[in-house]
Design a protein that fits this description.
The chain has two domains: 2-127 and 306-368, NAD(P)-binding Rossmann-like Domain (Rossmann fold, 3-Layer(aba) Sandwich); 131-304, 3-Layer(aba) Sandwich (Rossmann fold), CATH 3.40.50.720. The chain is 34% helix and 16% strand. It has helices at residues 20-28, 47-52, 61-67, 101-109, 131-148, 178-190, 201-210, 222-231, 306-327, 329-335, 337-342, 353-359, and strands at residues 2-5, 32-36, 56-58, 70-72, 90-93, 113-116, 170-174, 193-198, 216-219, 234-237, 263-266, 287-290, 293-296, 343-346, 349-350. It starts with a strand and ends in an 11-residue tail after the last helix.
């Protein structure tokens, strides 16, 4: 199989989908690897490192699309890449199709085999390819939120940890999953007052146990949401519904109850966001203000720490990528349910129900197509 590694073109995306070590593993399995020129440079991997392990450097992204059986990426393809798709090509990357109708339709039209990192799920419900980026995004949510609470950025001028004789900053985290847990760890480390809300009582019990009373856990009822909206300096949106559009837990009307200069960091923005007023932003223009509330909504937060994020991501994606390359997608899906659950489009059909529901497009069971 020919593997294509593209240079990411989403604004301020610095990660790369395959490291030289990953390329070496593919080559060692008997595959050809095409790497777009300078694809890894922003993550600290130079072209000669790829060439040294047997990969070929290619100037044109179109040539990679034309020649590759499987494209390995980080972020969803951008509109200027849609015309390069070809039938039966495997696209192995984060897709987040529930928030990308145009991309979904382009993949269906070209009959691309879309394997989405974010929907590859174990029998136990874990998301092994989403987890490392969720860990990074959760930690960064507090780092970025703390910065934008500073007055020069329009924030309240609050130091999350406070100092002796002052009140500590208040952080509310909506969702106690991987993002929320990592956000809580960072916020506790900074000395903030931390509240985590979730609808899963067992998860709240787990968090209460591991944090040993250093955080407050609340069931995510409307009354509790209203309380934290009014009281918090920083709110982190960390709600994830596997492969589906995130629910809006905070509405435009709710912003009027928030304190002037408080900050919202919506980590779920790449799935549509869990705050009604959020929309995707970029690292060079990360914030906007609505009703005196600062919104940070960068859709590719881990891209800012590109080397750490690339190493964490590719450690998780490479083993499954090798299975697809070595066995072919169909055989890999038959043998590994995690890979099968990652297939969102196949043969011009939509094979992931949450995405089909989001766009009211017919859903087709993958097992009936392979």
């Amino acid at each position: 199989m020919t593997i294509g590694v593209l240079k990411e073109i989403k604004r301020h995306e610095y990660r790369v989908g395959c490291t030289p070590a990953g390329a070496k593993a593919f080559v060692g399995g008997g595959h050809s690897v095409l790497v777009q020129k300078d694809a890894g440079i922003e993550a600290g991997f130079d072209d000669p490192e790829y060439e040294a392990v047997g990969a070929s450097i290619v100037d044109s992204p179109k040539e990679i699309f034309d020649r590759a059986d499987m494209i390995v990426k980080v972020k969803e393809p951008q509109p200027e890449e849609y015309d390069f798709f070809h039938e039966d090509q495997i696209l192995y990357t984060y897709l987040h199709l529930a928030a990308e109708r145009e991309l979904t339709e382009a993949m269906l039209k070209r009959k691309v085999k879309g394997v989405a990192y974010e929907t590859m799920e174990t029998d136990a419900g874990a998301l092994p390819l989403l987890r490392p980026m969720s860990e990074i995004a959760g930690r960064m949510s507090i780092q970025e939120g703390a910065k934008f609470l500073e007055r020069p950025y329009g924030g309240r001028g609050v130091l999350l940890g406070g100092v002796p004789g002052t009140e500590k900053g208040k952080v509310a985290i909506l969702g106690g999953g991987v993002v929320g847990t990592n956000a809580a760890q960072m916020a506790v480390g900074l000395g903030a007052q931390v509240t985590v809300l979730d609808v899963n009582i067992d998860r709240l019990g787990y968090l209460d146990d591991i944090f040993q009373g250093r955080i407050t856990t609340l069931y995510s009822s409307q009354a509790h949401l209203e309380h934290v909206i009014e009281a918090s300096d920083l709110i982190v949106g960390a709600v994830l519904i596997h492969g589906a559009k995130a629910p809006h837990l905070i509405t435009r009307k709710d912003l009027s109850a928030m304190q002037r200069g408080s900050v919202i960091v919506d980590v779920a923005v790449d799935q549509g966001g869990c705050i009604e007023t959020t929309h995707p932003t970029t690292h060079d223009d990360p914030i906007f203000v609505v009703d005196n509330v600062v919104h940070y909504c960068v859709a590719n937060m881990p891209g800012a720490v590109s080397r750490t994020a690339t190493l964490a991501l590719t450690t998780a994606t490479l083993p499954y990528g090798l299975k697809i390359a070595n066995q072919g997608l169909e055989a890999a899906c038959a043998r590994d349910s995690v890979i099968a659950r990652g297939v969102n489009t196949y043969g011009g059909k939509l094979t992931y129900k949450a995405v089909a529901d989001a766009f009211d497009i017919q859903y087709t069971e993958l097992s009936g197509l392979m």
